[in-house]
Structure formats: structure tokens, C-alpha cells
């Protein structure tokens, strides 16, 4: 059929129904015989579509070893940039196709190629937990920190990959891309076993990033075990917005733990002012009650511009009747609201 169409004058490099040329379509579907026919008849081996990139990117992404070999033998640019994965090596690495990764490396793929969603092949493999591919890439000289592989592995809970990266010299303190570092990533996503590992390997429990710190992240997302680990390893409770974060999210157990560990219930932090105002603004009466029992000032004033003056004003403005009732019972001054 393909041969007949070619003989009838079909344009080999024309874009078809799904906006990709014939060689790309055959490569992504694993049709090795058709790929061979198209190549013999002069199909452009490096013509790209918009999403995956070149035929080599597509074949690498789906693990078609024979097609990868055919494309390379017919002049495919092994380091061509394009598509979501940017390079064929990154595409194969993200999908755990070890044989394709080996083949590409043997044929001169640039292990430091940059770009794409993950920015490097190592970061792609790390993100998906492909430990064997990670080890192969490192063995072949991959930069252990390029593309923030440690942060990516930590955020997804891939402990084996985290261990492999650390054993190969990954910087435990490097600022990451999406989370602000590996420790904050693990804390935010609730991977306490990785939080513990990173702390043992020297991660700073108080490290700050543009996204805040690890304790604040764990408190926001209600990861109690991570909170306890961070505090036990020196996280300074009153230098972060951990109590305010937990209060504004209604995480009663976290609030209780932070108070027990010495959190200042009247500290001012961010737009909400006090933790009590944060809980009141968001309607968490149980958290508000816990804060009041532990000495929160019911009439504390918020100095932030354009914010509610105090806890009562915040609760009233949001219509949280239970919180309003609680605050009034505990001496809230209506003249200040």
C-alpha cells in the first residue's frame, strides 16, 4: 500500500491528518517495514512534528530499537532539539528504555543535552524513578545536578534514585526549580523517608527558597511525620510561617505539634497577621479554639495594609459564624473590628 502511494506520486514529507509526516507516523507506531520503505524512497529523516519532535525522538520515546537503528543509519541527527523531550536521549530516559539509551550513547548522543520539560536526560529518568537508567547516565558522565534530578526524585518519592544521586555527589543544598530544593520537595509531598535521608546527608532544615522553607511546606500540606522530623533536626519554628500555614489550612494536629514544640502563637506573619487570624479567616473554629487555649491574643491587630484588622473582623467578613461566636466568648472586642 505504502509503495503504491509513493509510486502514485504521494509527497513523502507532507503533513497528514494528525499534522505529522509519514515517517514520523510510522516511527511513533513502530512500523519498521514502512519506515524502511519511506527512507529508501527519500523521506526526510529529520523532519519534525510539533509535540514529540523528530522521528528519532518518537521512536526513542516508545522504545523501538530497530527503528532507532534504521533512523540513525540513515542520517538522523542524534542530538536534534525538538518536542516535549527536547532530545532523543531525554525521551528514551524518561520512558525507561534502557536499550535505546545505551544505543544512543554508543552513537554519540550528548549526555549534557539541555532543554525540554526535564532539561536533561538524567532529570527525566530521576523524575520517573528509573534507577538503572540513572546509574547508566551517571556512569557515562552525566552532570549529577543538571536539571535538578535530586529535587525531582525527592518530590516523587523515589528513594532509590535519591540514594543513587547522593552517592554520586548530588548537591543536597542546591536550589531547585519547582520546589526550591530537594528537602522542601520531599517535605511538601509527604515523603518522610526521603526527608529523613536528606537530613542525614546534611540538608539544612532551615534552608530558605523563593517558595519558603521545608517546615512551612510540610505544615501547609499536613505531613505530620515530616514536620516532626524537621523540628527534631533543628528546624526553627518561629523563623517560618509554619504555624500560620497549618492554621490557615485547618491542620489541627500540626498546629498542636508546633505549639508543643514552642511556636509563638502571637507571632505576626504574612497577610493574615496572627495564626488566630489565619484560622479565623479560613473558618477553622477547632484550630482557633486550640490557639486561644494556648494563649493567642484574641484582639491582636494586623498591621498589614488592606488586610482585616483582627481575627474577629476576618471571621465576620468571611461569614464564619462558629468562629465569630468562639471569638466573642473569648473576649473579642467588637469596637476594634
Automatic annotation (TrEMBL):
Keyword vocabulary terms for this entry: ANK repeat
InterPro entries, per database record: Ankyrin_rpt (IPR002110), Ankyrin_rpt-contain_sf (IPR036770), E3_Ligase-Neurotoxin (IPR052391)
Superkingdom of source: Eukaryota
ANK repeats mapped onto the chain: 18-50, 54-83, 84-116, 117-145, 145-177, 182-210, 238-270, 271-303, 307-337
PANTHER family (UniProt xref): ANKYRIN DOMAIN-CONTAINING (PTHR24133), ANKYRIN REPEAT DOMAIN 44 (PTHR24133:SF40)
Protein name: Uncharacterized protein
Organism for this UniProt entry: Orbilia oligospora
Amino acid at each position: 500500500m505504502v509503495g503504491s502511494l509513493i509510486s502514485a506520486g504521494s509527497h513523502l514529507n507532507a503533513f497528514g491528518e494528525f499534522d505529522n509526516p509519514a515517517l514520523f507516523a510510522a516511527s511513533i507506531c513502530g512500523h519498521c517495514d514502512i519506515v524502511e520503505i519511506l527512507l529508501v524512497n527519500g523521506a526526510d529523516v529529520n523532519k519534525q512534528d510539533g509535540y514529540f519532535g523528530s522521528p528519532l525522538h518518537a521512536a526513542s520515546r516508545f522504545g523501538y530499537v530497530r527503528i532507532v537503528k534504521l533512523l540513525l543509519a540513515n542520517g538522523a541527527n542524534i542530538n536534534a532539539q525538538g518536542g516535549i523531550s527536547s532530545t532523543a536521549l531525554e525521551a528514551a530516559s524518561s520512558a525507561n528504555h534502557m536499550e535505546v539509551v545505551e544505543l544512543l550513547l554508543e552513537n554519540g548522543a550528548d549526555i549534557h543535552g539541555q532543554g525540554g520539560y526535564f532539561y536533561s536526560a538524567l532529570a527525566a529518568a530521576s523524575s520517573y524513578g528509573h534507577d538503572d537508567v540513572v546509574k547508566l547516565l551517571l556512569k557515562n558522565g552525566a552532570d549529577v545536578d543538571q536539571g535538578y534530578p535530586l529535587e525531582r526524585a525527592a518530590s516523587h518519592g523515589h528513594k532509590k534514585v535519591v540514594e543513587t544521586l547522593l552517592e554520586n555527589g548530588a548537591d543536597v543544598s542546591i536550589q531547585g526549580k519547582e520546589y526550591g530544593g530537594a528537602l522542601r520537595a520531599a517535605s511538601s509531598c509527604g515523603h518522610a523517608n526521603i526527608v529523613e535521608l536528606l537530613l542525614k546527608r546534611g540538608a539544612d532544615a532551615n534552608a530558605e527558597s523563593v517558595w519558603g522553607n521545608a517546615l512551612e511546606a510540610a505544615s501547609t500540606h499536613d505531613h505530620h511525620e515530616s514536620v516532626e522530623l524537621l523540628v527534631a533536626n533543628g528546624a526553627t519554628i518561629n523563623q517560618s510561617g509554619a504555624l500560620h500555614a497549618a492554621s490557615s489550612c485547618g491542620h489541627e494536629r500540626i498546629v498542636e505539634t508546633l505549639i508543643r514544640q514552642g511556636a509563638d502563637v502571637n507571632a505576626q506573619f504574612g497577610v493574615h497577621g496572627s495564626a488566630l487570624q489565619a484560622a479565623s479567616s479560613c473558618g477553622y473554629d477547632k484550630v482557633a479554639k486550640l490557639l486561644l487555649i494556648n494563649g493567642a491574643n484574641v484582639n491582636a491587630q494586623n498591621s498589614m495594609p488592606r488586610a482585616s484588622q483582627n481575627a474577629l473582623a476576618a471571621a465576620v467578613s468571611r461569614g464564619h459564624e462558629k468562629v465569630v461566636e468562639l471569638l466573642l466568648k473569648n473576649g473579642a472586642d467588637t469596637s476594634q473590628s
